Every structure is written in structure tokens, then in C-alpha cells.
Amino acid sequence: MFDWITGLLEGGGAWAIAALMLLENVFPPIPSELIMPLAGFNAAQGGTPLWLAVLAGGAGSTAGAWLWYALGRAYGARRLHQLVARHGRWLTLTPSELEQAQAWFARHGGAAVFFGRFLPTIRTLISVPAGLARMPVGLFLLYTAIGSLIWSGGLALAGRLLQGQYHAVSGWLNPISTAIVVAIFASYLWRVIRWRPDA
């Protein structure tokens, strides 16, 4: 995965950064923890300027989050409850867990959207309850964009500061990123196997 992301960033510049960060929000196993440090490293080597890489990363991440928000808003809470009741095992979710998650989001909506941008997997999933709760779209985009820019900027700056050491660590970043994907898939299978319906 490391080599694939490197090739895309070198060939596509800011557009590739935005597209990859959008995909990271749609398909979480593509990690921003690889994308943005690589973008920062490429900036230090004369590639896409750091400020543009951060803006592209933030924009792509916000766009990906908005897709999940729009899906949650269009689908609606009632239909989601029906889906969970019918296919809870494959969603690894029970109706009571869904209700608890919705109650939690009702209490912490804005903070959840903002701080969720800094947590793997959560930064994708948090957009769905925001849409289900019909959080005002302007407020959702504001919290998401600010959180995304901070996260993208921090990772890109780390990659820029790493510079000469980046090739030294690239050898173990590739197997680690692959292991993350495998671990996420294994965790999902474990939850499917252990899933039990509400009593």
C-alpha cells in the first residue's frame, strides 16, 4: 500500500492528495497516517507545496465525510433501525446499541464531529449519526473542515520534518499498513461471530 500511495502522490500532486483523503473517509483501511506524511515528505523534496497539500488533504477529508453525512441524512433514523433489526449481525450492531449511540451523539454532537476527525475509523463513522440527527449542514462542515485541516496539517508537517529519515522507515511502513487492513478485517469477522441479538 505504501508504494501505491507514493506513486499516486508523485504523479497526481494536490488532486491525488485530495482524492486519497476522500477515499480514506469512504474506505477507512486507506490510512491518512500514510497519505499526509508522504505528502509532507514530497513537499520537502520539491513536490506539491506544504500549504497546498494540507488544503487538499483537508478538502478531500471533508468531502468524504460529507458523503457519509448525506447518506445518513437521506436514509433516516427509522429506516436505519429497520436495517439494524434485520441485518444486525452483518452490521455488528444491535438496535439497543444503535439507540445508545444516537443518545450519546445527541449530547455531544458538535464535539463528537470535531474530535472524531482525529480518531481512526471514527472519523468516517461519526458523519453518519450527524446526518441521522439532521445536524445543520453548515455546522457539520465547519467542525469537519477545521478538524480535518488540523489533522492533515499535523501529519503533513511530521512528514516534512522527517525528510531524510522517511526512506529509512518506509521499509516497515508498508507491512504495517497492510497489517492494519488485515487487523480491521479480522476484527470485523470476530464481531460478526460473537454478535448476539438484544434479549
Q: How would you describe this protein?
A:
By secondary structure, this protein is mainly alpha-helical. The protein has one domain (2-171). The chain is built from nine helices and no strands.
**Main β-sheet, in a few words?**
none
What integer is the average pLDDT? 82
Helical content (DSSP H or I, runs of 4+): over 70%
What fraction of residues sit in β-strands? under 5%
Helix-strand sequence: HHHHHHHHH
Total helical segments: 9
* Through-space gap between termini: 42 Å
Basic shape: globular
State Rg. 18 Å
Multimeric state of these chains?
single chain
Number of E strands? 0
* Secondary structural class: mainly alpha
- Low-pLDDT parts are none
